[in-house]
């Protein structure tokens, strides 16, 4: 295995080196870096040209410039990167540090959301192959594949950001609108839950009546400006989750799984009161510590009480613990929302990665970052969501035709066990490869998204750099994306080899 | 087939004779593989609808404003500015008067006018032409390169495979959009020729095709018919181009349609970023980029080019889906329904 990894790393480094040389040559030949100065009428034209020549080492032949750049990059191994200076003489290393953090935040979040949702949708459509839901999702994925990113982004800006902000000034939902929403929600839900005609009818009716009432009630509460949840809602939701997660994994009869899950739910309520004042003004480390505790403690409870089902018990308890912690945080976010609206009247912005000069505490900055992230993340996620759901679907269909699935069915296992225990796990193996490719591809796709949303990220670095025929920022962009692509491919190969014993390295 | 037993002569002695007799009576005609694929494709409704939409869009784009020296039937040109009539609002109306509309009419400027009074229909049609040309050229170039590289790597294996796949990796490591943007800038510098841009895009988007074809060839080259061809003394080039590549036609055709859709979207992204088609020529991506801020005041400047891109890309994608179903019978056909995932635990069925 080690030999395989080293061999792959060696060939990856070679490919990366060759690619950097190719890209460098292409970029410096894509135009004239002094072009704008040659046509300018400025009095100090000669001086400006001389200055830029010095910044970019233009008096040297191209291979010397490439070698200078390569030497600077190789210093990264000793912790002192030097990626050269851009066309205005600013150190690219400093620019990259800021740009990379905002782009990675965007891309990571989008990948995680797209992967989770996409895999879930893919499994559901594979299980319900050739149903109405399957056809609808297939059509939507094709539509998402065919959407130009920038066009979808402008639409989202118009309808989600500006429309929502206008609506939030005075949040009202008319009776007709809420009935319409209820009917649509009912149609979608009966499609998702399926079953016999009678069951579908009951689902539809219940949703179509319940949702409009809920919407009217929330308007009456002024929920959209003053959202609130409170401990009662949290405990009800976590207990419901504990019950349904147990039912999904081993069935409600297994007390060894059910009890740890319920105990975790009660613990969540306890922690809600214990951390109430602490979480009113927290910091990042506190939240991280809380998240770790929310995994470790339920995990221990599950392990101790689970007995022979300890794995399932741990899984269910950790899920309950994490979701409960998330709900607790959401409660505090709800509490901070009215104050945040006072600071930033139109919350969902269409430009930039954070609001300048925003006052307020931790939650205000958190909400600010979140609202700025929302639209670009949706745009990026929608597009890779389509490919995830498509690949998961075909992978699941492939697995479902295998003999061992028939064996599992014929020995009388429930459909739930067959799908989740036997089919789903094996269908996930090829998805690991897709995820690696997709992450690297999304960083590239972020170029367009960042341009539309005016983010000062790596895409912007690349875009302005290439327009000015300035190799340093373009190569810095390539260094990050290329390394990410190579590393993720390697990671995918290793994960593949670990997950699939048929693959030998 | 059910009534074949009645028609058969009664004095058959061996199974082979029975089978022969069955074949002789059977009314079904045997079909060639390509015939089966074609029939399956023609039965695929979304693909057929997409094909019709695509042909209509292509005909409209090329006949309306003409191509090159050939004039079209649309009177306005996409290069002439004119007086802005009625704020440049579209005159196209599909709502009859008795429904409260202004009657079914096309009018002077069906898609409206842009800020300096150019006819927007002509502009959009010009952009559509560009998208279609780029899609076709990129599809051809990338398919040709990808298929040949993949076939050579898969057939020869060894160091040729190693070298070709490392070159493929080289192109994969640089994000497609980045490579295309740099090449687009180089192509746009010298001339505004759309073909040059298309060739450049084709030169960078063949990698996926090469990998897929290589994978197929690697398994095909172990089959008997290849050994037979080699034993009969066929030249290597004949084995590759006459025996191996035709057998991968399914993979090639399906992926070239997805390549075409990808290329059309890539061109629009590049033009949006300013690395693709340069003004005064126009393309659908460039139109959206120019008018994205006019959304609130003149939304038609934004909607028409966007809808056209979506319509073209969606049709091509569905066409590819239909082709895949046609080539791969595993993907089509109804399946027995099973109990749903979230179905309630069923009680014992009544007998």
UniProtKB/TrEMBL annotation, chain A:
The keyword Transmembrane applies. It is a multi-pass membrane protein. Keywords: Cell membrane, Membrane, Transmembrane, Transmembrane helix, Transport. The lineage of its organism: Bacteria, Bacillati, Actinomycetota, Actinomycetes, Micrococcales. Belongs to the binding-protein-dependent transport system permease family. Pfam families: BPD_transp_1. GO terms for biological process: transmembrane transport. Coiled coil: none annotated. It comes from the Bacteria. GO terms for cellular component: plasma membrane. This is ABC transporter permease.
TrEMBL record, chain B:
The keyword Transport applies. It is found in: Cell inner membrane; Cell membrane. InterPro entries: BP-dependent_transpt_permease, MetI-like, MetI-like_sf, OppC_N. Pfam families: BPD_transp_1 (PF00528), OppC_N (PF12911). GO terms for cellular component: plasma membrane. Keywords: Cell inner membrane, Cell membrane, Membrane, Peptide transport, Protein transport, Transmembrane, Transmembrane helix, Transport. SUPFAM superfamilies: MetI-like (SSF161098). It is a multi-pass membrane protein. Residues 128-320 form the ABC transmembrane type-1 domain. Residues 330-351 are annotated as: Disordered. The chain crosses the membrane at residues 47-70, 132-155, 167-188, 194-213, 244-266, 301-320. One of its GO terms (biological process) is peptide transport. Belongs to the binding-protein-dependent transport system permease family. OppBC subfamily. This is Oligopeptide transport system permease protein OppC. It comes from Glutamicibacter soli.
């Amino acid at each position: 295995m080690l030999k395989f990894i080293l061999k792959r790393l060696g060939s990856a480094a070679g490919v990366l080196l060759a690619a950097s040389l190719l890209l460098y040559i292409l970029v410096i030949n894509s135009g004239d870096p002094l072009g704008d100065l040659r046509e300018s009428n400025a009095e100090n034209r000669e001086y400006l040209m001389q200055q830029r020549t010095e910044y970019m080492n233009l008096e040297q032949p191209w291979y010397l410039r490439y070698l200078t750049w390569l030497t600077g990059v190789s210093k990264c191994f000793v912790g002192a990167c030097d990626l050269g200076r851009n066309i205005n003489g600013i150190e690219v290393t400093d620019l990259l540090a800021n740009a990379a953090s905002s782009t990675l935040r965007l891309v990571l979040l989008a990948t995680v959301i797209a992967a989770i949702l996409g895999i879930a949708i893919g499994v559901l459509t594979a299980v319900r192959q050739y149903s109405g839901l399957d056809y609808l999702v297939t059509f939507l994925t094709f539509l998402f594949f065919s959407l130009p990113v920038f066009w979808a982004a402008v639409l989202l800006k118009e309808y989600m950001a500006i429309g929502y902000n206008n609506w939030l000034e005075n949040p009202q939902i008319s009776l007709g609108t809420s009935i319409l929403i209820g009917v649509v929600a009912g149609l979608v839900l009966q499609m998702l839950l399926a079953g016999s005609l009678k069951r579908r009818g009951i689902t539809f009716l219940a949703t179509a009546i319940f949702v409009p009432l809920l919407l009217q009630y929330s308007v009456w509460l002024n929920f959209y400006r003053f959202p609130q949840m409170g401990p009662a809602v949290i405990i009800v939701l976590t207990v419901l989750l504990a019950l349904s997660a147990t039912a999904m994994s081993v069935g409600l009869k297994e007390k060894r799984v059910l009890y740890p899950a319920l105990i975790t739910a009660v613990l969540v309520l306890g922690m809600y009161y214990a951390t109430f004042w602490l979480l009113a003004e927290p910091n990042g480390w506190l939240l991280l510590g809380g998240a770790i505790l929310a995994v470790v403690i339920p995990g221990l409870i599950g392990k101790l009480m689970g007995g022979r089902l300890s794995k399932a018990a741990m899984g269910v308890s950790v899920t309950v613990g994490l979701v409960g912690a998330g709900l607790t945080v959401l409660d505090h976010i709800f509490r901070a929302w009215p104050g945040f609206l006072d600071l930033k009247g139109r919350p969902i912005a269409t430009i930039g990665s954070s609001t300048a000069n925003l006052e307020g505490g931790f939650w205000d900055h958190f909400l600010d970052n979140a609202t700025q992230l929302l639209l670009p993340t949706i745009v990026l996620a929608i597009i890779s969501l389509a490919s995830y759901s498509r690949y998961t679907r075909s992978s699941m269909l492939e697995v479902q035709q295998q003999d061992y699935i028939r064996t599992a069915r014929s020995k009388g296992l429930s459909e739930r066990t067959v799908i989740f225990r036997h089919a789903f796990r094996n269908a996930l193996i090829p998805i690991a490869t897709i995820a690696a490719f997709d992450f690297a591809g999304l960083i590239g796709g972020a170029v367009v998204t960042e341009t539309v949303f005016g983010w000062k990220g790596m895409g912007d670095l690349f875009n302005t750099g290439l327009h000015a025929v300035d190799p340093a920022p373009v190569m810095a962009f390539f260094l990050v994306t290329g390394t990410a692509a190579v590393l993720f491919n390697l990671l995918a190969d290793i994960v593949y080899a670990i997950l699939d014993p048929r693959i030998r390295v | 087939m059910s009534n074949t037993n009645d028609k058969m002569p009664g004095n058959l002695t061996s199974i082979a004779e029975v089978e022969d007799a069955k074949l002789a009576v059977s009314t079904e005609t045997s079909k060639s593989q390509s015939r089966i694929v074609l029939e399956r494709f023609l039965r695929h409704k979304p693909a057929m609808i997409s094909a019709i939409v695509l042909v209509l869009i292509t005909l409209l784009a090329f006949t309306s404003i003409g191509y090159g020296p050939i004039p079209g039937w649309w009177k306005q040109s996409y290069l002439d500015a004119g007086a802005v009539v009625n704020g440049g609002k579209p005159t196209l109306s599909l709502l009859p008067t008795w429904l409260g509309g202004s009657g079914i009419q096309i009018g002077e400027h069906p898609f409206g006018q842009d800020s300096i009074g150019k006819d927007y229909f002509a502009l959009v049609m010009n952009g559509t032409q560009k998208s279609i040309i780029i899609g076709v050229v990129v599809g051809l170039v990338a398919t040709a390169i990808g298929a040949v590289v993949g076939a050579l790597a898969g057939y020869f294996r060894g160091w040729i495979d190693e070298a070709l796949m490392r070159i493929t990796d080289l192109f994969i490591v640089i994000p497609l959009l980045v490579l295309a943007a740099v090449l687009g800038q180089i192509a746009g510098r010298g001339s505004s020729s759309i073909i040059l841009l298309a060739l450049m895009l084709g030169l960078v988007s063949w990698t996926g095709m090469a990998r897929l074809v290589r994978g197929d060839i690697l398994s095909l080259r172990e089959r008997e018919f290849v050994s037979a061809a080699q034993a009969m003394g066929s030249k290597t080039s004949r084995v590759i181009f006459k025996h191996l590549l035709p057998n991968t036609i399914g993979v090639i055709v399906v992926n070239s349609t997805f390549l075409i859709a990808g290329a059309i979207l890539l061109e629009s992204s590049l033009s949006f970023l300013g690395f693709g088609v340069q003004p005064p020529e126009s393309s659908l991506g460039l139109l959206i980029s120019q008018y994205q801020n006019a959304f609130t005041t003149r939304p038609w400047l934004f909607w028409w080019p966007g809808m056209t891109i979506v319509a073209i890309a969606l049709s091509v994608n569905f066409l590819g889906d239909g082709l895949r179903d046609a080539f791969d019978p595993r993907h089509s056909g109804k399946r027995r329904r099973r109990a749903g995932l979230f179905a309630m635990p069923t009680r014992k069925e009544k007998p």
